[in-house]
Amino acid sequence: MAEDHVSEVVPLVIMAIGLGMDAFSVSLGIGMQWLRLKRIAWIGIIIGIFHVIMPFIGIALGQVVSNQIGHYTQFVGGLLLAGIGAQMFFFAFNHEVKKISQPVGAGLIFLAFTVSIDSFSVGLSLGISGVKTALTLFLFGSISTILTWLGMMLGRKVKGVLGAYSELLGGSILFSFGIYLLFG
User: Which PANTHER family match (predicted)?
Assistant: First the structure.
C-alpha cells in the first residue's frame, strides 16, 4: 500500500520540480535586484498561487477531454509533456524573451502568469491521465513557491550563474516524463 503512494508521489514531486525550474531561473534574475525579504516572500506566494490555478484549469479541461477521447489519453498526455519539455529545453538560451520587469502590481501578476503557463499544459495532460488533483496542486504550488524563494535568495549571492541551466534541467525532466508516458 505504501509503495503505491510513493510510486504516485515521487513522479509528481519530480514533475513539480521540473515546472518550478522556470520560476527558479527567473527568480535568480529577480534576486539580483535589491528586494526586501517581505517582497521576496510575497513574490514566491503569488507565483505558487499561479502554479495552483493554472494546472487546476488544465486538469479540469483535461478531464473533460479525457471523457471525449478515451483510450488515446495516455498518448496525448505523453505528447503534451514531451512537447512542453522540448520547448523549455530549446528556448532556455533565448535571452531576448526574458526581459524582467519590476515584480510589483501588474508586473508581478504577469510574471507569475508567464512562469506558470507551462503548468497549465502539464495540468491538461495530467487531467487526461486521471491524476489526483488535490495532491498535484499542493505539490505544484508549494514546490514552485519554495523554488522561487530559493532562486531569489541565491540570486542575491550567485548573480546569474545557473539561469539557463535550470531551465534545461526542467525541460529535460518534463520531456523524460512525456517519453515515459508514450513508451513506458
Answer: MANGANESE EFFLUX PUMP MNTP-RELATED
Q: What is the pLDDT of residue 156?
A: 73
pLDDT tens figures, 118-135: 788 788 777 777 678 888
**In this structure, what are the phi and psi dihedrals at residue 108, rounded to the nearest 5 degrees?**
-70, -40
Contact 125, 22 (CB under 8 A): no
Q: Using pLDDT thresholds of 50, 70 and 90, give the confidence band for residue 47.
A: very high
Q: How many residues does the chain have?
A: 184
Around Cβ 94, how many Cβ atoms within 10 Å? 10
Domain extent for 160: 2-183
The set of residues, in sequence order, having a beta carbon less than 8 Å from that of 137 and lying 6+ positions away, is 52, 55, 56, 59
Radius of gyration of the chain (CA): 16
Query: Which strand (E) or helix (H) includes residue 130?
Result: none
Q: Report the Cα–Cα distance between both ends of the chain, in Å, rounded.
A: 22
Whole-number Å distance between alpha carbons of 47 and 51 = 6
What's the rounded Cα separation, in Å, for the pair 68 and 50?
A: 27
The one-letter code for the residue type at 179 is I
d(CA 133, CA 113): 20
Q: State which amino acid sits at residue 177.
A: F
Distance in angstroms (rounded) separating the CA atoms of residues 35 and 152: 9
